[in-house]
């Protein structure tokens, strides 16, 4: 679009905004003038004793700002929104961090019939929806929040949706929890290391639908964060954020988890008949592993969505 056309578009937009702020509005225009776009966002129910908090996994604890994008022609403007919460409510009120002006047309409601396509993401970052997301190969408790990418999107949003509905955020990554069951073998070990094998550390952020797809090479070992307090009956528990894998990227007998006990190497492979996607975005995968000198015994609990706020007991049917 030429500069002249773009200028004329903005002039027309400002004129529309000005006309909609007059007291004598007719038709579907809003009495009293335009209203700013504000959002009520749902939170994820806090788990009873969270070890590593993903963003929103504690009633918005520690979240100060999010990014908001409204899709219009000729551009998709974005703004920083502040997060205001009520203790224990589990929801948040999102409003512009700075006062809106007449030039912020996309972020005003001017009639009861207009619709918007709105995308909200967290963490806010540099002010743009991330096109690429990376996770560290050695993860910490801090990474479990700062690298936990969440997104919410609504097409055809109306003023009434804004006033009466809530945005539901979705974890773009998946979370893996590994429980090493207590045993004399591990208790007597001097050093135990746990790794997730053959993982991506970089992904493209796809807009429609909102998904992550691994890029570069899937050959990284991720060292998960060891929890301060292990699960019940466990020698140690670990958590990590991982990039989802499509079914065509996963092969039966793929190496998935590596455990080293005083130099002895143990590897868990996917079952021979496995042919599904692995680590779906927004799910928690829990692997309960017993280690002894003979090898590994692995079980995966029932499917659980991360957004349920539960403590995460698996999300894939593995023996």
Walkthrough of the structure:
The chain is mainly β and 319 residues long. The chain folds into 2 domains: 3-171, Immunoglobulin-like (Sandwich); 174-308, Immunoglobulin-like. Helix content is 10%, strand content 36%. It has 4 helices and 21 strands. It has helices at 3-20, 143-146, 159-164, 184-187, and strands at residues 35-36, 39-42, 65-71, 78-85, 91-96, 108-109, 116-122, 132-134, 150-157, 170-171, 174-181, 192-199, 202-206, 211-214, 220-222, 225-226, 234-242, 255-261, 264-269, 284-292, 295-300. Strands 2-5-4-3-7-9-10 form a 7-stranded antiparallel beta sheet. Strands 16-17-11-20-21 form a 5-stranded mixed beta sheet. It has a 4-stranded antiparallel beta sheet with strand order 15-12-18-19, with no helix packed on it. A hairpin with a 4-residue loop joins strand 13 and strand 14. The radius of gyration is 24 Å and the shape is elongated. Residues 1-27, 45-50 and 308-319 have low confidence and may be disordered.
Q: Report the end-to-end length measured between terminal Cα atoms.
A: 57 Å
Roughly what fraction of the amino acids lie in strands? Answer: 35-45%
The CATH C-level class name of the largest domain: Mainly Beta
Count of individual beta strands? 21
* CATH fold type of the largest domain: Immunoglobulin-like
Query: Quaternary arrangement of the chains shown?
Result: single chain
The chain-level structural class is mainly beta
| Integer-rounded radius of gyration | 24 Å
Bin the helical content. Answer: 10-25%
CATH architecture descriptor name of the largest domain: Sandwich
Largest sheet: 7 strands, antiparallel
**Secondary-structure element sequence?**
HEEEEEEEEHEHEEHEEEEEEEEEE
Overall 3D shape: elongated
Arithmetic mean of pLDDT: 80
